[in-house]
């Protein structure tokens, strides 16, 4: 099955300076290990067959010929191997010496890629031996009784979805790396064969460049650097191996490992290609640059080589909560930033309208609590008193003592204006007017209450010269878990860009920074089951209508929401990823049922999202019909349910 992943490895086995035969043996052993682990692309460091620190020995034909013989042996040993191998060696051509990467596949040299930028500063002295390959475009080099293309900018296409570009060490560190042009021309996996020595703080800087280049180019970046065994006359090499994907470091090898280093990752090709399609500026940049890239051919369509890794061989793990950073410090920073975005958005809207009051319906639940926290901050920004926030609690048929008391306590704790308007009588009158039996607890019974509350809040906003602050979150909008023209509507929806799993962390984060008396209320809100409280409580006065009993866990739906919107992930792949992320928590049968529910609700409820009120985008996923998500309300969902 087409998994959308490909397993890759960057390796830096122990090297012997000038010991070509030993380096060949180490490389073949590494290839066997990669074969066992079902790696599809393997890269070695720069000049690995000779060693990087040979100095003037590079000018000896004895060394360069030995490297070519070793490469020929490597071809013979990998004749039946379905793996792309990149390895570095010195190559003589036209009375010049080039620092090259040889790209092997099934026992043949697919191409040589020369280094473009030859460093000659600080500890580097490469121009003494090597010429730049900047003028090599489709040159042919004789190798083992055949002619092999040698070209900068060569792309090695494994399939319609996967294309490899190669650069060597210094090429990455310049202002306009070859990998930029390679990516613009289609390469989505960049391989870098490197020999980067170690110095204090250099590793962090090196990783930041790798991550940044993978982010700018929407690509995967495989980096393998020279390691232990290189000459330590003046420098020390650590064998730094790093794999990045679209700005994130996926894997790192152990540095200074005496017997060699390696790192392996499953690259999400689907995700990279989806990002390139989404980002129109990426293709625009190609058309403005019009870089000339030599394509070195394709694997024969008749080949049985499967470039992608089977689901069963994918070892990558996935965060069950993609909207929430796992690192505590990063999560704290993210929460503070999101609250700042929300509160400044509301402050701007109030300032623009010339209004100084906000009206919020407070239920004692998570969403309205977050909206209150945001409103308090907005008032602080505008230097207005908290009394300018009119908080309304509207007990209905399903309101429990717990949520009611938490709502009242929160309002008073923040010093906001409190107003209580019970809606039971008004809802009963309305049901009588439309001829609905209040003993029938159906959607009419529930929505009557929701719309009554919104009518009250809208009219209060008019009466007090303020704006109604919406409380609904991104997850509810995705699932359509809101009443059309009720909690679906407001004058500014501060939570519209925040998924439910993140709402919880935002409230929790605020609790950690607020006085104890407020924090205790917030923690009890966090401990309360998510519910619209539209159906009567049970015989013990507890919440009977629990949203997640009906929809399934919000953490699962948020997982689907993130991958569906952010990368256009296929349902069968999402199910695989969810099964890995929630292993031991939910069964695959449950996850499949909830995915089907997510798809059905997402498609059938687009009409609610098509007329959303304004609200701030806070992350990479948004459902605003004016920005990130434009979709017909009557789209057919059948092909998304075929998994």
Report on the architecture of this protein:
Helix content is 39%, strand content 18%. By secondary structure, the protein is of the alpha/beta class. It has two domains: 5-300, Nitrilase/N-carbamoyl-D-aminoacid amidohydrolase, CATH 3.60.110; 328-641, Rossmann fold, CATH 3.40.50.620. Strands 13-12-11-10-9-8-15 form a seven-stranded mixed sheet. α5 links the parallel β10 and β11 (220-225). The termini are close together. The mean pLDDT is 93.
Task: Offer a few descriptive terms.
6-stranded mixed beta sheet; 7-stranded mixed beta sheet; Nitrilase/N-carbamoyl-D-aminoacid amidohydrolase; 20 helices; 2 domains; 20 strands; Rossmann fold; elongated; single chain; alpha/beta
Indicate the CATH topology of the largest domain. Answer: Rossmann fold
Identify the strand order in the major beta sheet: 13-12-11-10-9-8-15
Low-confidence region ranges: none
CATH class term of the largest domain: Alpha Beta
Question: Which range best describes the helical content: under 10%, 10-25%, 25-40%, 40-55%, 55-70% or over 70%?
Answer: 25-40%
* Count of individual beta strands: 20
Rounded average pLDDT: 93
Q: Sheet with the most strands?
A: 7 strands, mixed
Class from helix and strand fractions:
alpha/beta
Strand content: 15-25%
Number of helices: 20
CA(first)-CA(last) distance = 12 Å
- The CATH superfamily of the largest domain is identified as HUPs
- The assigned CATH architecture of the largest domain is 3-Layer(aba) Sandwich
Large-scale geometry = elongated
Radius of gyration based on Cα positions: 30 Å
